[in-house]
Bifunctional protein FolD (Candidatus Methanocrinis alkalitolerans), 588 residues
Amino acid sequence: MSRFPPISGTGMIIDGKALASEMEAETIARVEKLAAIGRRPGLATIIVGENPASAMYVRIKHSACDRVGIRSQTVRLPEEARIEVILETIKGLNEKDDVNGILLQLPLPRGRDPAPAMAAIDPAKDVDGFHPLNMGTLLAGAERLVPCTPKGIIWALERLGVDLEGKEAVIVGHSNVVGKPLAAMMLNRNATVTVCHVFTKDLAAHTRKAEVLVVAAGVPGLIRGDMVRTGAYVFDVGINRVGDRTVGDVEFDEVLVVAAAVTPVPGGVGPLTVSMLMSQTATAAEMQMSSEER
Amino acid sequence: MSRFPPISGTGMIIDGKALASEMEAETIARVEKLAAIGRRPGLATIIVGENPASAMYVRIKHSACDRVGIRSQTVRLPEEARIEVILETIKGLNEKDDVNGILLQLPLPRGRDPAPAMAAIDPAKDVDGFHPLNMGTLLAGAERLVPCTPKGIIWALERLGVDLEGKEAVIVGHSNVVGKPLAAMMLNRNATVTVCHVFTKDLAAHTRKAEVLVVAAGVPGLIRGDMVRTGAYVFDVGINRVGDRTVGDVEFDEVLVVAAAVTPVPGGVGPLTVSMLMSQTATAAEMQMSSEER
């Protein structure tokens, strides 16, 4: 964990890459245990069309597969593929024994609703955790396969020794991918949770109270230094292109001197998310094996 | 809507019975439309053992069925019924065409985990909204069959003309039945939502900010007048026996003079919940019909 000269906080930069490597080391051990009994996990990604950002994310995920020893395959569908074709592709992968995890790369091209596609993925292979059955199980407090970004943040907080019970946690952004599932996960750990978003009247009044602050708004520089409580743990989920730079939603330099610790962008939440996807693919393979044994 | 002499709020007592009657009038119209084409909705309740409170709740629900013209039936299982027997009973009701809604009265007797039983109910007949598929669909923002108490509160807020978008909403209690699903429903309507509970360090600091305050803690008199913001809408979900009286979680007389409006206990959230169960039974019957037509 690298450190920065502290002023009022302790100014620690949360090294997402280093934490992700620790997580991957655990995953490698689990993958090799599975491989030793002929059950090396496999991840299949469906990518529809030619979105360059999607292509990049898929490359990043599959390169993580290579690092941890998970087999990966990509199913490419043309830009104009109808929803029926996407659903058929998913059904085919649901039935393949050597595919333990299925990833539908979002967004789908215009006019194709992702909801029925996500609901078509076998919940036991839903390594992204977006299937409504997995989301509902999460909301009810039993976490199995859950969205990777929130779970990566929860994992990092545990690693950093932050016990969420009784903590004031504030989430900025109420998306289905980050904000809402993270709120459920934090409530399951007995944090006091506030979810803010674009309709919130006084954002700073909330963020200033946060002992744990997670920002997933997609607005560059939204969170300034004076909006952060001294000693807070700050996770920046934003990935924004500003000119030729990639920046988060947090004004990093300002917040670093106030907070106990902050994730940078890039190199913070992103690597944690990718490594959590690897971990969940291993989890899916383990769960599928134990359900066969029953 | 009855009114009370206002001091600093407007001191309105939210008449849950009157609102419930309005909702039931709507439900009666829907039920009669279904009955006219030979599809009068039916609700089946499974009750395990002899819990007197459960017996009372089932009586209240079935008397509501009588009022709105929904057929009701009760399946009584003995106290010692094993989980397998409960699951078989549910499967039988799932297959019956004249049962549109299935209610498993909770709590189950000791040693029987309700989770697999709730997950065994056909999601299309899950009028209590506790099936993980319905909970997950709710969390993802598409509300179909959802828990009745939160939905009753949302319905009442709409009736009272309170638009949740941008409102500061605070929920006290993070149960699967009320707090967590209500938080999801309020986020779906773009409120800023804070969920507090027994682990919250400074409850009053949160409740004093609430424009909409929902209390479901099961602690008599938890919310005092000085913990409520002037002009707040306050919903008291608590049902506590104190001596021979039934009281809520809100110190009613103190809060009434501060708030814009408060639900009493009894006669507030309770009747709304029961009427919402009737409404959802009609919804289930309507959805089942339209899915047959497809």
The first helix of chain A runs from residue 16 to 36.
